[in-house]
Amino acid sequence: MGMDFSTLRTLISRYCAGEENWVDSRTVYIGHKEPPPGTEAFIQQRFPDNRIVSSKYTFWNFIPKNMFEQFRRVANFYFLIIFLVQLIIDTPTSPVTSGLPLFFVITVTAIKQGYEDWLRHKADNAVNKCPVHVVQHGKVIRKQSRKLRVGDVVFVKEDETFPCDLILLSSSRDDGTCYVTTASLDGESSHKTYYAVQDTKAYRTEKEVDSIHATIECEQPQPDLYKFVGRINIYMDSDPVARPLGSENLLLRGATLKNTEYIYAVAIYTGMETKMALNYQSKCQKRSAVEKSMNAYLVVYLCILISKAIINTALKYMWQADPNRDEPWYNQRTESERQRHIVIRAFTDFLAFMVLFNYIIPVSMYVTVEMQKFLGSYFIVWDDEMLDEELGERAVVNTSDLNEELGQVEYVFTDKTGTLTENNMEFIECCVDGHVYVPNIICNGQVMTGAGGMDMIDSSPGPDAREREELFFRALCLCHTVQVKEEETVDGIKQGIHQGKSTSFYISSSPDEVALVEGMKGLGFTYLRLKDSHMEILNREDEVERFELLEVLTFDSVRRRMSVIVRDSRGERYLFCKGADSAIFPRVISGKVEQVRARVEHNAVEGLRTLCVAYRPLSPEQYQEVCHQLSGAKLALQDRDKRLAEAYDQIEKDLILLGATAVEDRLQEKAADTIESLHKAGIKVWVLTGDKMETAAATCYASKLFHRNTQILELTTKRTEEQSLHDVLFDLSRTVLRQHGTMTRDNFSSLSGDCTDFGLIIDGATLSAVMRPDQEDSNSGNYKEIFLEICRNCSAVLCCRMAPLQKAQIVKLIKASKEHPITLAIGDGANDVSMILEAHVGIGIMGKEGRQAVRNSDYAIPKFKHLKKMLLVHGHYYYIRISELVQYFFYKNVCFIFPQFLYQFFCGFSQQPLYDTAYLTLYNISFTSLPILLYSLIEQHINMDILKKDPTLYRDIAKNSLLQWSTFIYWTVLGVYDAIVMFFGAYFLFDNTTFTSNGQLMTTNTQMMFGNWTFGTLVFTVLVFTVTLKLALDTHYWTWINHFVIWGSLIFFVVFSLLWGGIIWPFLNYQRMYYVFMQMLSSGPAWLSIILLITASLLPDVVKKVIWRALWPTTTERIQSADKLYKGQLSEFTPLASLHASSKTGNYRRGSGNQGNAQNPRRSEPLNTKVMFTRWQRTQDYCTFTPLLRFTDGSRYPRRGHAYSGAGPETAV
């Protein structure tokens, strides 16, 4: 009985939700066939189906879930409370005034999110319903992908994508291999080889595969793409046979079958348990600096609102303390309400005042911002300059929430390979025993040009030189995982290996390997194919050599090398090994190490990627020992990777060095120009790469990240071996601080020419030591802070030998520093995904390493050069537009609600509204919303060409300068001033009133009917015209759309007011606005007063701008003035140096607290003796012309000593 309970407990634990993870392995029945009786009993587990779900909502939970998420936002929740208060208590305004804008915002947001989720559902359905072929009862049948189950045997054809994670049983190839691209998973677009189970690879028909009787034991699903441990038990006639399964047998969902006609495989992980699904990283919600500023302003205005309500409540009860003053009759309070406790009455009045003044919080601002971001993102997508014709790809916007953040970037973290470089490898040279060989020029025993100056190279080859040379060439033709693709046609041209002999080309998981094999072809040794476990080579004499491939010791990033064991036609066995110099040299026991090392270092300095090649002959006894070590490690279910690593370590030793290779990865087009522009814009660029230091440093010099006068500081393992990390850090710190001791930290970002330009190089091992949380030496201090201080003083930083996780750690470290700078990460491969997700803005490059980075990024661009326009133009515009939008919204709501506050002093604090309900409701929705939305979409304060040509303008908007508290206070004070002018201007207009003969109140000075609604309508009319014209004055870029929307909004307001007050509407219980607007406009003085009040409201802001532009113009304002003076032709022919303000003018950021700073990093210094004029979009030439504006000494004519030079696309000014 106890046994039964034990079995029951096991079943419950395995089947109950949440308990399956407790089981550390799973057993899969191939073809759902039970194991034969007498074998170990297996309890069949429950597995999910193959359905992929990336959507957020369902039809049933959309409304409650979406409402919950929307009301988590402070502004929405606040307006919901206000709306409920209006429903519950007697408030001065209708619930419609709060409910309608809130309903509008919630509805628009819900529609947007629902549409986006519908697209996700649509994409999921397309994937889940795609047909797959499954073997059942000896036949291939079709079924939908979502109906696939664990244990099903799947039939996949060439170029089809694997529907789930599969174990390869057999393939159309005789050797049981298949070739796969995993670009959608790990970003690697090259082909990888996978192997079928040895005992099942001969089963090639449906009936044969259906006859397989086996079970698979493997680990439970986990996200590591490169790790898999399992075992297959095959039940033959005799005892069951167990074979090991590893990652080389596992075909992952999302990968594509290539160069193989078909395969049969069994499903082991399905649906959301596949490795691809487990790698779906839930992106954390990134919030821009502008959104944080908006929330801070919102809190300030909420405090102002509460203060207003408290003040009015207190003043109301002070007013009513006089026995002669009671609650106004028109509030219609009942006796029971009058007799309530004073605390309850005061609290009710406080809530009523809150409702009355709540429009100071702009709920519609959020929906306007959402629309601006969503619609504005299309300008990036539509930009033809960011279209790559070669790839046929445009820029992609994956999230529009961070558009304005592109204008605030302070740090750019970039990958090297495939981002700065093309990831298009070309074989340059190889060095064998000190002799250099170049493709197509056979240099047997001759030293090539460029190596002649190296004294350690022995130019007289020994008697065995030719033999070692050919052994080196054979090693490179054999030590790889390259496959040969037969009869491939590209653009109608067949790609061939050996002219007249074959129509094939090479494919591999590494572009370096293809370059090396093609390089060997140029040196006379051609790799032909791998057939029946035999590799075939065509030598110089056009003879085919066959080598039996015995073992492949695959490459991994820890060992940084790979090896093959082969047997030649004479029966001799060799181990050929190639890898990084740091992985090969310590394992070498003979060979010309110093000569080869010198050549490797020389090539690394030139920016070439280097690999070393070595070999080891194996005796039969040694080979048997190798086989024993490998088979023992491969069969282990526990710690298989660790045991394999130990076995590889034992095998790859006592090597004989043959030589080294050099491969070039070319710099991307305009990469250097882009980095130089980012530097001028005040952005610090860091390169994070896995390459060796010398290669990466050479790329940094080529891309102008480092200049020849840059002082390089090294924080590397080599240096920390000579000194302690503590001493190295403090030495570097003293070096940089000695130079910058008198400068503020903000000056460091200016990359001033007055100080030494520092560049830092750090490697992964040293970074790990710096990032270690607990230092062994208690007196060592905080290494992170010292490291950050050094980095802040460097214009550029190179991090080499970086693991993907370390890239993210670097970004996180900078994000968390005291300044909290805005960071951007850009990369093209799966190894860049972690830093792309970590940075404030992540950009993926559509390179040759797949689409993993693109899918996980916020934005995707075809080439690195497009980053320049994305930041300097689009980012600049987005930030300018949205900062104006935010400030303007708060300004117009202060103008709107402050007269309501003042009105309470003249109506006994009775909560009487100043404006009609229709005006309260439509002010933010209709009358003033479209002009600012359009402004925030198409405004261009400076011509686009100028922004591209003068990157220093980017500094004008750095550090959220347009949303500083000083600017916010200015806009708020301006709103209060305008509100006072509107209210008291209208008040004094109605100051003298008399009764007419029929009892109506009329103003003596305007002969106009007087009433509270007439007064409110006059104030509201001035308000709408003032805030709309204020925006018109701020607009620099006028189009017909601006005119249509701005003047159309004003006409709509007038027409609406005429209709609203001119018709008796049957659905209204009372119509207090009847004939009010027409009556007001029938008075001539009212027209005059409206014009005067609008002028008085706008005048101070206009005067202030004129004075500031005349006395303290910013660089931006100088260029605006020049552009107007020369009618938009500034970008054609411009003396930009003369437009930049001198240091004497102080800081352009007025009110930011740095006005006295003479050495302002955000100003460009004028040149004293030479002015560089830029003639854009012209060929380079020298010309003479009269300067358009002025020279740096203020004169309008050239004097002796000035040089004029036309320039190319960009000239330093």
UniProtKB/TrEMBL annotation:
Subcellular location: Cell membrane; Early endosome; Endoplasmic reticulum membrane; Membrane
Topology term for the membrane: Multi-pass membrane protein
Keywords assigned by UniProt, alphabetized: ATP-binding, Cell membrane, Endoplasmic reticulum, Endosome, Lipid transport, Magnesium, Membrane, Metal-binding, Nucleotide-binding, Phosphoprotein, Translocase, Transmembrane, Transmembrane helix, Transport
Binding site for ATP: 415-417, 513, 555, 578, 609, 689-691, 801, 807, 831-832
Binding-site residues, Mg(2+): 415, 417, 828, 832
InterPro entries documented for this protein: ATPase_P-typ_cyto_dom_N (IPR023299), ATPase_P-typ_P_site (IPR018303), ATPase_P-typ_TM_dom_sf (IPR023298), ATPase_P-typ_transduc_dom_A_sf (IPR008250), ATPase_P-type_domA (IPR059000), HAD-like_sf (IPR036412), HAD_sf (IPR023214), P-type_ATPase_IV (IPR006539)
GO molecular function: ATP binding; ATP hydrolysis activity; ATPase-coupled intramembrane lipid transporter activity; magnesium ion binding
Gene3D superfamilies documented for this protein: Calcium-transporting ATPase, cytoplasmic domain N, Calcium-transporting ATPase, cytoplasmic transduction domain A, HAD superfamily/HAD-like
Keyword flag Transferase: no
Record text on subunit structure and interactions: Component of a P4-ATPase flippase complex which consists of a catalytic alpha subunit ATP11A and an accessory beta subunit TMEM30A.
Protein's recorded name: Phospholipid-transporting ATPase
Recorded name of the encoding gene: atp11a
